[in-house]
Amino acid sequence: MAPGLLLALLVVTAGVSAGLRRYGYRATVPWAMALGVVVAWGSVSMTANIWLEEALAPSLAGEEVTVLATVTSLPEHAGHRSRFRVTVEAVIAGPEAFAARELLVTAYPARPEVEAGTRGQMTLRLRPAEGPANPGGFDRAGWFYREGLHGSATLLDLESTGNGVPAAPARPWRADLHRVRGWLRGRLEVAAPELRHPGLVQALVIGDRQGMTAPEWQAFLRTGTNHLMAISGLHVGLVAGFVGLLSGLVWSGLLPLQRGLRKAAFMALAGLAGAAVYAALAGFSIPTQRALIMLAAFMAALLWRREAFAWRGLMLAAIAVVLWQPTSVLAPGFWFSFGAVAVILLLLQGRSGRPGWREAGSIQVMLALAMLPLSLAWFQLGSWVAPVANLVAVPVISLLVLPVLLVGAGLVALWAPLGQPFLHAGDGVLALLVGLLDLLSGLPVLVDERRVPLAASLLGGLAVLVALQPRLRLGALWVVLAGMPLALPMRPDIEPGAVHVLLMDVGNGQSALLQTRNHNLLFDAGPGRAGGYSAGEQIVVPTLRAEGVRRLDRMILSHEHAAHAGGSAGVRDSIPVVETLRRVPAEADERACEVGERWEWDAVRFEVLHPPPGWDGSASASCVLAVETAGGVRLLLTGGLGGLGEAVLMRDVPDGRASDLLVLPRGAGTGSLSRGWLVDAPPRIAWASTDGRGRGLEAAVRERLKAACVPLQETGLHGALRLEANSELEVGPGHRARHRRLWQPAPLPPLRGQEGCTPTPTDETRW
């Protein structure tokens, strides 16, 4: 924590204390609120500063380091790789700037011998926490910050203890905990290898979701029931309730204890202990820690017999969670957990007695509807079928599946044959539930995936709060008014003749979205490989949804290289594509992308300049697209154009190279951007799709652009790049600069041109 910030915090705290003494009890609330704001800001700032000091700097990308480390998580062994968390104990060799303590390590190929508690000398290739930065995309650095990870690395070599490595002083407790979880996972796999949904069983018992298949996860996600597969407040609370009820049944037999402890206190303590054991099985993840704190706060308020204990318990739990883990407020689970409890309390206000099954069902339906605005805001996905799905799934999971599986897991730990019937019974119920969720998720009209502005989500949440108040009869009207913005098209208003361009940050690949007033075009779909990673699914599709794109009028795959076309399947699976132009058509509904293709959308002209008809399938045969606005601004997207293709383009279309914006070929090397191009037709600005290490553009090309006074902007540095063009070319800042976060390093300088620059001939640009 910065000394100045610490001093300011102490001064303000002293002032608050003096104010409380001076003005008495009536001033307690405002002063307490002021103190809370200061403490909250101080804790968050301190957490961020400490994390930034230890996080891997961008300059360490690709560097190798040798450390003494211990595996402190349950390893994920999936096919060709293994992934696990390590705690660094000592640095044996590496850069002086390396100060990370917690790393997420991936090993290729898989290392099944690595388990929780494995300790040894590891040689690692480092990768900073920063990841692709796109609208609506996954914030990799934010996730690392929340999880307390300082970066990631690739395992190059592992020398376990016993080969000259000093013995471990005191193994981290997390390693022992995850070793027990790994042992139980192995017992479950051996005891019932023929289960239909083993991944779901492990997710509910030990919080290990790596075995869940993609169809299983999509079924829960699209029906709004995915919260059931992450051990959190609901699961921990249910276990606490079950254990508390069982402890109440044996209360009468504990006569000595009855004299000094009330039954309610005994049940509360027993329930909390049972919940702690279950949280330990889940690895004491942040959601389970949050749930335990909430549970402890509620039970404390209940035992103190304070009036309105529920609301006070909720507020006490929120304060405790934020103080214990300030980064919790960045996780959707924090808001879903506390939001759900608050909605339930609102629904129960004014009711006497215990709610029956009918009331419990209505509460579940209203809860699902109340969470819809939050779901749209966080995940850009709202399931209108969620009330029905949750009405079935919540009691099935909580009252049937979870108790049966936990009993089965406990018996399996003692003797496998004892627990097998319980595991099979729970798996059978899960199979029926997954079948129902698959049926519901296949109804597209009931699952809405769209970008929702924060203002609309807040308005929807406010309407829900109003509607839940029994004395406010106009609540339904508020809900209708709040829902109206959700039905409006969430995309920029583009004037006729103009085009908006977004070059996405997809790493070592390329993908660009071009939008006119009424049409959407995707130029390349990012990298991907069959059966593996797909930037189309993980980056391009979320970005398209964030931009309000519900349909692609055309997709152009400029090159057959996986960096351009690898993500196309992921895009097609999620967003309708009317027409596809491809360098080498692979499907019946695809057409060849070659010279002669031209069209006009909303007064914006598009034309394919390369390759000529009959060109072979060489690496230089990339589609080149020229775009011209009604105002005369010209854009050129070169795909994966190589040196030979560039020469053919210069010969066949000598005037076609002129552009205001030039999107450089992906992987532009020494043969790209010849001296003739930059001398005869220098662009006003150049964009390059690179990764965080600058791969995708060679240094020689950067030097040529600098010598020709052409400003260069890279996705690997600035994140997704955006511009608007009609009569003028308006280039905005990169996504990282537009969306600064507390956990990000110092901001990059603003994107500027090279005014006053004089072209300097070099050995490669001299004419």
From TrEMBL:
UniProt keyword terms in alphabetical order: Cell membrane, Membrane, Transmembrane, Transmembrane helix
Topological category with respect to the lipid bilayer: Multi-pass membrane protein
Main location: membrane
Biased composition (Polar residues): 757-767
Ranges where the Metallo-beta-lactamase domain occurs: 508-712
Gene Ontology cellular component terms for the protein in this record: plasma membrane
BP terms from Gene Ontology: establishment of competence for transformation
Compartments, record wording: Cell membrane
Xref: SUPFAM superfamilies: Metallo-hydrolase/oxidoreductase
Parts of the chain that traverse the membrane: 228-252, 264-287, 308-324, 330-348, 360-379, 391-416, 428-446
Organism listed in the record: Thioalkalivibrio versutus
Annotated spans, Disordered: 744-767
InterPro entries (alphabetical): ComA-like_MBL, ComEC_N, Competence_ComEC/Rec2, Competence_DNA_uptake, DUF4131, Metallo-B-lactamas, RibonucZ/Hydroxyglut_hydro
This protein's name: Competence protein ComEC
